[in-house]
Design brief:
This protein is α/β, with parallel strands linked by helices. The chain contains twelve helices and twelve strands. The protein folds into two domains: about 110 residues, NAD(P)-binding Rossmann-like Domain (Rossmann fold); about 180 residues, Rossmann fold, CATH 3.40.50.720.
C-alpha cells in the first residue's frame, strides 16, 4: 500500500507527477474545504510536502497525528516550526541547492531590461506605435557604476557580471569584505549617490527592513535605477512608488514585493518599471534538482533509512 502524503501547495509539475506515481497524494490547494480534507486524511497521512517559502503552520503539524516527515521543496527560512516538529518526532527535510548564478543572472537581466527599456520597447512595438515615431533612448551599462547592497554569494555573482558589462562596482554591507577589490561604502547614502544602478542583494532581517527608504532613493537621483532581487520589505514600497511617480529616480526592476503575490497597481501602471513574479530561482535546472532531492528524502524515509538532506 502506498504511503499517504499531503501536498500543501503546488510544486514543480514533473516532481508532483512523480510523487503521484509513488505515493497516495492528497492536494490541499485543490480542496474546496481544506480543513475538511485535512480532517478526513489526518489518520492516514504520514508525510507533508510543502515549499520552502510556504512552509507549514504549527496547526497542521498538530492536526496530523500520524505525521512522520515534512518534506520541503526548497529551504524554509522560518516557515517551519522546527521545535514543534522535533518535539513531535517529525523529520524535516529540505533541498539545499545553489541558486547564486540564477539569481545573479536575473539581477543583470532586470538591470539591462530597465536601463535599456526593453520591456517598454516590447510594448511599444506590440502596440503598433513604431511607425509613428521612435522610442525614447535608454541608458547604456558600460562605464556606469553598479552599487550592490550585500556582497554575499549572490551579490558577488552580480558584481562579476556587472564588471563583464564594463561597469564599475561598489558595495555596502555591515563590514568590508576581505579579499574584495571593489570599493566599499560604509554609508549607504553615499553608495546610492555614487551609483547609476543600485542593486538590493542583502538578506531580509529586522535591521534591513525598510533600509532603502526615501532618503536613499533621493540620493540615487533622477538618472538612477533600482533593482531588487532580495526581499520586498528591504525597500520602502511607498517611498519607491512616490520616487518613481515623481521621477526622482529613473526606473526600477523588481522581482520581489512587500505583499507577494499582490503587486501595487501603481507599480504595474508605470512604464519605467520592469516586474517579475519572484523568479530568481525559477529555472528548470533548480526545480529539477529540488525535485530529485525531495524524492530522495521521501524514498529514504519510507525505506527506513536516514534522509539525505535533513533540516537541523
Amino acid at each position: 500500500m502506498k504511503p499517504e502524503i499531503l501536498v500543501l501547495v503546488p510544486i514543480y509539475a514533473p516532481t508532483l507527477a512523480e510523487l503521484e506515481r509513488e505515493f497516495s497524494v492528497h492536494k490541499l490547494w485543490e480542496a474546496r474545504d481544506p480543513e475538511a480534507l485535512a480532517k478526513e486524511v489526518s489518520g492516514s497521512v504520514r508525510a507533508v510536502v510543502t515549499s520552502g517559502s510556504s512552509g507549514i503552520d504549527a496547526r497542521w503539524i498538530e492536526t496530523l497525528p500520524k505525521l512522520e516527515m515534512i518534506g520541503c521543496f526548497g529551504t524554509p527560512r522560518g516557515t517551519v516550526d522546527l521545535a514543534l516538529a522535533r518535539q513531535r518526532g517529525v523529520v524535516v527535510t529540505n533541498t539545499p541547492d545553489s541558486i547564486t548564478a540564477d539569481v545573479a543572472d536575473l539581477a543583470m537581466g532586470l538591470m539591462i531590461a530597465v536601463m535599456r527599456r526593453i520591456a517598454e520597447a516590447d510594448r511599444f512595438v506590440r502596440a503598433g506605435r513604431w511607425p509613428s515615431g521612435l522610442l525614447e533612448p535608454g541608458s547604456g551599462l558600460g562605464g556606469k557604476t553598479c552599487g550592490i547592497i550585500g556582497l554575499g554569494a549572490i551579490g558577488s555573482g552580480i558584481a562579476k557580471r556587472a564588471e563583464a558589462f564594463g561597469m564599475t562596482v561598489r558595495y555596502h554591507g555591515p563590514r568590508r569584505k576581505d579579499g574584495m577589490d571593489y570599493a566599499f561604502d560604509p554609508d549607504l547614502e553615499n553608495l546610492a549617490r555614487a551609483s547609476d544602478c543600485l542593486v538590493v542583494a542583502c538578506p531580509s532581517t529586522p535591521q534591513t527592513r525598510g533600509l532603502v527608504n526615501a532618503r536613499i532613493l533621493d540620493a540615487l537621483g533622477p538618472d538612477g535605477y533600482l533593482v531588487n532581487i532580495a526581499r520586498g520589505p528591504i525597500v520602502d514600497e511607498h517611498a519607491l512608488i512616490a520616487a518613481l511617480r515623481e521621477r526622482r529616480i529613473a526606473g526600477a526592476g523588481l522581482d520581489v514585493f512587500w505583499d507577494e503575490p499582490r503587486v501595487p497597481a501603481e507599480l504595474a501602471a508605470m512604464e519605467q518599471v520592469v516586474l517579475a513574479p519572484h523568479i530568481g530561482s525559477t529555472t528548470r535546472e533548480v526545480r529539477e534538482e529540488r525535485g530529485r532531492k525531495l524524492l530522495a528524502n521521501l524514498r529514504a524515509h519510507f525505506a527506513g533509512k536516514p534522509v539525505p538532506t535533513p533540516l537541523t
